[in-house]
Amino acid sequence: MDGRFLIRFAVVALILACGFTARVTYEQLANPVAPAQAQQGADQFDCESFGSQESAQTELDRDPSDPSNLDPDGNGQACDDFDFGVDDSGDGGGATQDQYQDEGKGDLFNAGGPEGGPVPSMPDGSCPAEFPVEQNGACYP
User: Fold this and answer.
1) What is the average pLDDT across 63-69?
2) Given 39, 44, 50, 65, which is the most exposed site by the fewest CB atoms within 10 A?
3) How much is the pTM?
4) Reduced to 3 DSSP states, what percent helix, strand and coil does the chain have, rounded to the nearest 5?
């Protein structure tokens, strides 16, 4: 056997291997054996995923079709029979921390800021009523 035959044989074998791999990959993409998790309709949340009934209600209001079955009795109230009480035993029982609440600091939407100033001026250059004095592009109380 000469060298040219071995090179041609190796190239043909490589092309066949690439073609087989591409075909298998295409079959898995076009006709997957198992559907993706989003296609399975599996619950994404349960009542234990939330730290309060209000947080669970927010999720139910966001998606009223209720794919996570947060309202099994269909009364419009999410997790109304779940105990969201904090377990003081230290064994990890009870509801998880509320994803919408920062423990002991109120809601995360009220993240705070300077209480005594300065604060940046408004986009139009004015100052808010709580900080009426403007100096060097900042507003003071």
Assistant:
1) 86
2) 65
3) 0.36
4) 30, 10, 60
